[in-house]
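Incident log, structure service

09:12 report received: a user says their structure output differs between two submissions of the same chain.
09:20 pulled the input from the user's history:
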Amino acid sequence: AVVDAFPFVWPASDVPHLVELGPEHDPTTVELKTLSARPRVLEADGVLTAEECNAIIEAARPDLKESVVVVQGKSQPGSAAAQPGAAEGAVSPRTSATAWLKRPSDEAEGRGALLLSAQAKLARLAGVEFAGAENMQVLRYGVGDHYHYHVDNGGSPSIESRALTALVYLNDDFEGGKTSFPMAGRDELDMKVARNVYAVRREYADCTTSHGLAVAPRRGSVVLFYSLQPNSMLKDRWAWHGSCDVSRGEKWAANYWFRVDRLD
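09:34 re-ran on a clean worker, output below:
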C-alpha cells in the first residue's frame, strides 16, 4: 500500500506486471519484469519505438555539454570531481555528455510529438503522473566513458526528493556500458560502506559487472528503480548504481526522474 503523499511503487514479483502504455487507440502492452527486490529494479523491453529513441537523440545532440556531479551541494564537471586524496591522473568518476529536454506542448508535431509520446509512456510505465517528472536528461557516452557508483538523489538537497528513475536505453549498437547495481542479491549491507560514495566505489571497484546485477542495454528498453524507500523520504541505501565503461562505439541513454515534491 502507498499513501497519497508518495508515488506508486511496483511490487517485486516473480510474475511480470502487464502495463498498458498507449492511449485507447493504441493499447500497447509490455511486460515489466522484476530484476531485483533489493534494490527494487524492474525492466521492460520495447517501451519506446526506434523513431522515439532517434527523436530523443537528435533533439539532445545540439545541446550536449560535459556532464556534472553534485559534491556537497555544488555542481562541478564530472572530469574534475576526483575522489579526495586520489593520486594525480586518477580516473574521473563521470565522463559523459548531457543535455536536458523540456516536455513538449500537448499540441507538438513531428519530433516534438515523438518526445511527448515517449515521456507519456514512461509515466504510464512508472504509474506516476506527468506532473511528478523532471525534464528528461539525455546522456552520450563515448569509448572509455562511464559514471561510477552513485545514487540519483544524493549530493544536494535539490535532488533528494527523487523517488524513481526511468532509465531509457536509446541504442544498443555498442559494447560495454552495462548498468551495474552492485548490492543486488546481498543479504545485508555494511552501512559504513553504503552511506559513503567513496567507500562504495572502493568496495566495488568503481563500476563492475562481477558484483550484483548488471543490465545490458537494449534499444527501447526501460529500467525502473527506486531511490527512496516506499512511503518515506529515507534513501534506499541499496540503490547504488553505475554506468560501466563503453568499450566500443557510442552509448545513448536518458533518465526520467519522478519526485515526491512534485506530486499533488
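09:41 both user submissions now match this output. Likely a transient worker issue. Closing.
09:42 reviewer note: DSSP finds four helices and 18 strands in the chain. Residues 176 and 250 are 10 Å apart (CA to CA).
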